[in-house]
């Protein structure tokens, strides 16, 4: 879908890496990247934003298809009261989703994300094949549907086709419900190249490499894929689920004689390219290893709470210079402020302190959490420029600072209130790569997307418990 990109945006109050700036104009190039920010209270601009303008928030971990089961796994059934029981219900739901339904589900989901302040989505995609496990005539069919959904919604997408080639640490066979995910490494490399061609030379698309987990792909297979992916993917981000559940750690220790993070670092060249999703159950040595090597940890607090995963030691990790970002994962929430709020609150409950994730030299808790999530999220998508600055993507959100709860507050106080106290959505306008996709709290495609979602859900199972 073609949308016109803005070249000039006037901001009454703008958060940059150097701090707040007032009465300035952002100038963007034809690809939607920021060329300059100039202080000018008189120049004309195509769009005028009177509220607080902050960087768009990257969603570094999303499974779009799981939007179809939101709420359906909250009915307690025998043997389904932990992560592994939830996984079986999720797999059963996966079995029925076809390409049209996936596109309809993802389009609606991505619009929801935009309206809440996410401006890019990192889609960790493993629903590759037909329900019987056979490839579609076009092996990249499901990947193309996700890209199409992102284009229709107007969100930037970092597509991560996922390698999934075994059922456990001992090379167990896949379950019937996992056959949609399966690739050999050779087949995966072909899919990766096809997806790379879909994303090349498009300013709002990017590509990365992903392995589902060490249960689903051995370190040797992961390293082989990275080495054989080709020059175009030589600096692409690499993502993996790791150490999400205690059972996973125990099984890895039993079979491999090492904890998952230790085993990964011993076997693969883990660097700043990498994003470790969850990484909850890690030792102090593993935590320091991740921070030292510059890998990002992708945290999804609402999903991790919903599944009973546990709490990542974020306070200690940040003190060691670690990098974090946030994601919506299972889609029980698509609000970045809910993720940031729960991230901080879980640490407060764990340590029985306040302001846990803010540096000891002080400052706004909300602003620090926002800036940390932007840095980590962009890095996890292969970007290296932080915030609203020349060279960075023109991804912006405007907070409606004229609301009564924000009156008389400073910019930092408004961010703190927005993240920790707001009930209603305060995201008034959203710009993605210089394109305005949300205007005055509304997205032009919301109603059409809602109707399509209703049609998709009407043909999918609405009871998942056996």
Summarize the SSE layout with pairings.
Layout: E1 8-16, E2 19-28, E3 34-39, E4 47-55, E5 57-62, H1 83-94, H2 99-116, E6 118-125, H3 141-153, E7 156-163, H4 185-199, E8 205-207, E9 209-211, H5 219-228, E10 238-242, H6 246-256, H7 260-267, E11 274-278, H8 284-293, E12 296-299, H9 301-306, H10 314-319, E13 323-326, H11 336-351, H12 365-380, E14 396-399, H13 411-420, E15 427-432, E16 435-438, H14 446-458
Parallel strand pairs: 1-4, 5-6, 6-7, 7-8, 7-9, 9-10, 10-11, 11-12, 12-13
Antiparallel strand pairs: 1-2, 2-3, 4-14, 14-15, 15-16
Helix pairs in contact: 2-3, 2-14, 4-5
Keywords:
TIM Barrel, 20% strand, single chain, 2 domains, 35% helix, 16 strands, 9-stranded parallel sheet, 7-stranded mixed sheet, alpha/beta, 14 helices, globular, 466 residues, Urease, subunit C, domain 1
Spell out the CATH superfamily of the largest domain. Metal-dependent hydrolases
Helix count from the secondary structure assignment: 14
User: Mind summarizing the main beta sheet?
Assistant: 9 strands, parallel
| Share in β-strands | 15-25%
Report on the architecture of this protein:
- With 466 residues, the chain is an alpha/beta fold.
- The protein is built from 14 helices and 16 strands.
What is this entry, summarized?
The chain is an alpha/beta fold. The chain is 35% helix and 20% strand. A hairpin with a 5-residue loop joins strand 2 and strand 3 (34-39).
């Amino acid at each position: 879908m073609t949308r016109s990109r803005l070249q000039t945006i006037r901001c009454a109050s703008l958060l940059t890496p150097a701090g707040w700036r007032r009465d300035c104009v952002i100038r963007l190039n034809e690809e939607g990247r920021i060329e300059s920010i100039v202080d000018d209270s008189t120049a004309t601009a195509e769009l005028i934003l009177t509220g607080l303008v902050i960087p768009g928030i990257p969603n570094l971990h999303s499974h779009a298809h799981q939007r179809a089961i939101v709420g359906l796994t909250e009915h307690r059934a025998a043997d389904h009261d932990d992560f592994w029981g939830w996984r079986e219900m999720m797999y059963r739901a996966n079995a029925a989703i076809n390409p049209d339904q996936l596109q309809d589900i993802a389009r609606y989901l991505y619009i929801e994300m935009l309206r809440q302040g996410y401006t890019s989505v990192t889609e960790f995609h493993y629903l590759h094949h037909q329900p019987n496990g056979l490839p579609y005539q076009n092996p990249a069919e499901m990947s193309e549907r996700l890209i199409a959904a992102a284009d229709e919604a107007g969100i930037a997408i970092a597509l991560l086709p996922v390698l999934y080639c075994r059922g456990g640490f001992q090379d167990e066979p896949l379950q019937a419900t996992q056959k949609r995910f399966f690739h050999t490494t050779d087949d995966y490399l072909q899919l990766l190249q096809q997806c790379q061609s879909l994303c090349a030379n498009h300013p709002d698309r990017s590509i990365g490499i992903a392995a589902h987990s060490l249960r689903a792909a051995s370190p040797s297979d992961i390293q082989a894929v990275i080495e054989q992916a080709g020059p175009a993917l030589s600096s692409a981000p690499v993502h993996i689920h790791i150490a999400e559940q205690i059972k996973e750690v125990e099984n890895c220790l039993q079979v491999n004689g090492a904890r998952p993070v230790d085993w990964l670092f011993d076997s693969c060249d883990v660097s700043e390219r990498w994003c470790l999703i969850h990484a909850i159950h890690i030792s102090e040595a593993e935590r320091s290893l991740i921070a030292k090597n510059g890998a990002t940890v992708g945290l999804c607090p609402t999903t991790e709470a919903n599944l009973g995963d546990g709490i990542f030691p974020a306070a200690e990790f940040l003190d060691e210079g670690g990098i974090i970002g946030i994601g919506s994962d299972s889609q029980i929430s698509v609000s970045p402020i809910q993720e940031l709020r729960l991230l901080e609150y879980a640490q407060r409950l764990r340590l029985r302190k306040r302001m846990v994730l803010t540096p000891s030299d002080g400052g706004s808790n909300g602003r620090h959490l926002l800036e940390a999530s932007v840095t980590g999220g962009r890095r996890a998508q292969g970007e290296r420029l932080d915030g609203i600055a020349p060279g960075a993507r023109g991804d912006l959100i405007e907070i409606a600072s004229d609301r009564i709860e924000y009156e008389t507050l400073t910019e930092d106080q408004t961010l703190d209130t927005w993240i920790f106290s707001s009930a209603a959505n305060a995201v008034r306008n959203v710009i993605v790569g210089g394109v305005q996709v949300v205007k005055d709290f509304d997205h032009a495609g919301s109603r059409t997307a809602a109707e399509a979602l209703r049609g998709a859900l009407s043909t999918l199972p609405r009871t998942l418990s056996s």
